Amino acid sequence: MPVFLGESHWFGDHACAPRAVFPKSTRLGLALRGQASALRAFFDRGGIIYEAHGAKVRVRYAHANLHASIEAGEPLSARINLLLGESARDWRQDIPTYQVLRYRDLYTGIDLKYGGEGDGIKSEFIVRPGADPEQIRLTYDNAEHISVDGQGNLIVRVQGAEWRDDAPVIFRLSGQARVAVKGRYSLLDANTVGFEIDGLNPALP
Predict the structure, then answer these.
(1) Predicted TM-score (pTM) of this structure
(2) Which helix (H) or strand (E) covers residue 119, if one does?
């Protein structure tokens, strides 16, 4: 299922338009295009808003670097033309598209990367050697209830709907190999989530 990224203000609220991401934009968005997917996401420097079937959940990067650079990556060959309205001055043509959005140094020594995966959005925290992943704090501002189920998935109840974030998959690099590391979501308060990682050695990649 393709993911299109570009500046969201180009698209307005037109349901047919893919949301998007561009470098240097402070209001970003992403949509997965496909008949089965109604998920959209809108990004800014402070967090992300997920929207599906009329329900929204706001995830805020608590205590993060609000000056982190936001970059689009992995360009696609597809281009978008939006010929909306009668005036050619309002048309946007040859808009480039991308697959990945990355916040650089969102936390000290930690990047956050977004992209599409199946009918969902995949997020990855990339922790450099010496950085502390306990800096990461995700606050679900409008959540009614947050819990972790028996499989380690994060369940967020908001506006009568349940949102699920899959259990985290954590690894470190040893040469070119990935070495699995045990870890899980940690509920820090009624609305905030972090990560608990077993046997953490910040010096290792």
Answers:
(1) 0.77
(2) none
